[in-house]
Write a structure and sequence with these properties.
This protein has 330 residues and is of the alpha+beta class. It is built from 13 helices and ten strands. The radius of gyration is 33 Å and the shape is elongated.
């Protein structure tokens, strides 16, 4: 109970024993507590350092108990003084932060007031996201085009996700279907759903983006190379359009935990997406990137679909898919 005052548990036990019997000796303390003499002396030394014990006037070499009202009140006063000083330091730090922010705003006026803010490089993007994580958001929704997530990324995201959900933030995220094929990523998505997040998947997504409170959206400068930086969109019209795009795709996305669905032709959503992309003439590299899978996996699925269609080439497979009614608009 006295740990908050800097008194260890062992020292407190010695102290309470001496309160009950002020003239008790080391041997008696050791016997009563079931300790060695060295343990008792360690507790006595600590109490002496805290000025809860002082040298006895009557028995040279012995220690006397300081009145608890004096000794403990003195420790409490020290704690209060430290708290006041800490509060003063925090107030000074807050003022310093405000000054730096004001200077930054003066040096970058266009960045603060424009509907579009450009963030150059991954460090700038992460710094911006860290600031949003502590902004008390009520809703976050977005597309994650990464497919299987890296262990490092999931480890970094998990505490931030949990903190946001515990604050009551509504989080809705659409991942690629390919994320379900990676066991660690699927475990993370299930954890996110069980913790309170809403998670769904689609075969393909148009771009990576995150929308915050329907007021600002973060999208990559170059969807093919997200590490080059991102753009923050604050224009009401643009943000409203991105929100509408999200809601439209959310309705057709499948919740995590739901089994893979096959259409009337027996195609999974991922297979349907590949057929559509083949019909549009995309290369294996582009198809793999859009689905968040390896080129090898993309080629394997393409080969299986080509065989099912009885085609001899990718072009013929695309044409036959159209003939058979396999191609649908996404």
């Amino acid at each position: 109970m006295l740990e908050a005052l800097g008194v260890s548990l062992d020292a407190e036990k010695v102290y309470r024993a001496m309160l009950a019997e002020p003239r008790i000796g080391v041997a008696q303390l050791a016997e009563g507590l079931g300790w060695t003499d060295a343990q008792v002396r360690g507790g006595l030394d600590e109490l002496a350092r805290l000025s809860l014990l002082r040298p006895s006037w009557e028995a040279p070499g012995a220690l006397r108990l300081v009145n608890p009202e004096v000794g403990l009140s003195s420790l409490l006063a020290e704690q209060e003084a430290e708290l006041v000083e800490r509060q003063r330091q925090i107030a000074a730090s807050r003022a310093a932060v405000a000054a730096v922010v004001a200077d930054y705003a003066d040096l970058n006026p266009s960045r603060q007031h424009s509907d579009i803010e450009q963030l150059v490089g991954i460090d700038a993007v992460r710094s911006w996201l860290e600031a949003r994580a502590h902004a008390g958001l009520s809703e976050v929704m977005g597309f994650n085009t990464g497919g299987a997530q890296s262990e490092q990324s999931m480890a970094a995201s998990k505490p931030l996700d949990q903190e946001a959900l515990e604050r009551g933030t509504v989080m809705r995220t659409i991942y690629l279907d390919s994320a379900r094929n990676d066991p660690p990523t699927l475990t993370y998505l299930r954890w996110l759903a069980e913790t309170g997040g809403q998670v769904r998947t689609l075969p393909t997504l148009p771009l990576r983006m995150v929308i915050f409170d329907r007021k600002q959206a973060l999208i990559p400068v170059n969807p093919e190379h997200s590490k080059t930086g991102a753009v923050v969109q604050r224009g009401p019209g643009m943000v409203a359009a991105l929100c509408a795009l999200f809601e439209q795709m959310w309705q057709s996305a499948k919740p995590v935990g739901q089994e893979k669905h096959r259409d009337d032709q027996g195609l999974t959503g991922q297979e349907q997406a590949i057929i559509t992309l083949l019909a549009e003439g995309w290369t294996d590299d582009v198809i793999a990137r859009k689905l968040g899978v390896s080129v090898r996996t993309s080629r394997r699925i393409t080969a299986e679909l080509t065989q099912r269609l009885g085609a001899r080439s990718r072009f013929q497979a695309g044409a036959r898919a159209v003939e058979h009614g396999w191609v649908k608009a996404f």
